[in-house]
Amino acid sequence: MTVDAPVTNDATSGTDHLLVVDDVRTHFRTSRGLVRAVDGVSFTLDGGRTLGIVGESGSGKTVLSRSIMGLLPKRHTETPTGQVLFKGNDLRAAPRKELQRIWGCDVAVVFQDPMTSLNPVMKIGKQMTESMRHHLHISQSEANVRAVELLRSVDINEPDRRLEQYPHQLSGGMRQRVTIAMALGCSPELLIADEPTTALDVTVQAQILDLLQAQQRQRNMAMIIVTHDLGVVAGRTDEIMVMYAGQVVEKAPTRELFTRVRMPYTEALLQSIPRIEDNVDTRLKVIPGRPPDLTSPPKGCRFAPRCSYTQTKCLEEPPPLVSEGDHQYRCWFPIGTSLEVDPPTRRDGALAPGVVATAGTVTTGGAD
Predict the structure, then answer these.
(1) Does residue 116 come out as left (phi exceeding 0), alpha (psi in the -120 to 50 range) or beta?
(2) Is the N end or the C end of the chain the one with fewer CB atoms within 10 Å?
(3) How confident is the model at residue 341 (pLDDT cuts 50, 70, 90)?
(4) Burial status of residue 102 (CB atoms within 10 A of its CB: 0-12, 13-18, 19 or more)
(5) Closest by Cα among 239, 221, 228 to 205
(6) What pTM did the predictor assign?
(7) What's the CA angle centered on 7, arms 6 and 13, to 5 degrees?
(8) Distance between CA 8 and CA 270 in Å, rounded?
(9) Is the peptide bond before 80 cis (omega within 30 degrees of 0)?
């Protein structure tokens, strides 16, 4: 077992990996203080591979994806440390014009709500061809032909007619297919899908996820899927990175993470997934409490106030990110190891503030 250090440029110069994220920190200046939205995140991604970034709202996953793209406003944002190397080039140090060349062409993004990411007063065809004409330097007629081919590739019927329609004339699923087609327009090497199924019903969600997976394999591009649902990334990613309160708390190959969970937060996310074999009156499991205030995060483990395994050490000392081969986790008492403790009766009887053990379950004291 080793304590994980930030990625070094000597080990990963960017030539070995398509994307290298090294000790990235993104903070926001607010009237209440400095919000540490992303706090020391490191990972690498190779071409043709898929990474799932998972965490509940407020975990920092979307801020991380926008930090990678360089899409955050600079006026109230601080980036004290870190590098984002794409094919060896540091995107954080790149001038705006260089980023504009990369956006859409080499790195593309699919946002979670197509109704807000698409221009409501501009026809689909205009929105799709604009980026292609800019990056690929092709004529309008060539761009139109390419747009029709892209819409057909994402299973939209009557693609010629769709180019003349406005976003409000399409269903939610079709709008999301349009945004995927737009993102693929310039054949990017990296696609970031930020909660691509949040605004869709369950049936359409599966179709969109299958479509993204098929396009990723067909084009051999790298992909990052950002989601709050571990079920979304199961079977669709090569590796999963779980975030909580701005930090990576567990990271492992997908099969490894589902079969050998180490971090209690990951276990809690898995337990909160509804199961089809459960009775209709089965109560859904929830994670007690709320994520911490990132202007003043807890002294020890950031998940300790909500964790059913909490010990005194968890409240006093922040755990490092340790590695067991290619499995990383941030926990003093990892599940499935000799250090594991049984909830809710713990070795020293310590309970996190506001957490009460009752009838074999753990709940929060007081109302949220």
Answers:
(1) alpha
(2) C
(3) confident
(4) buried
(5) 228
(6) 0.86
(7) 155
(8) 32
(9) no
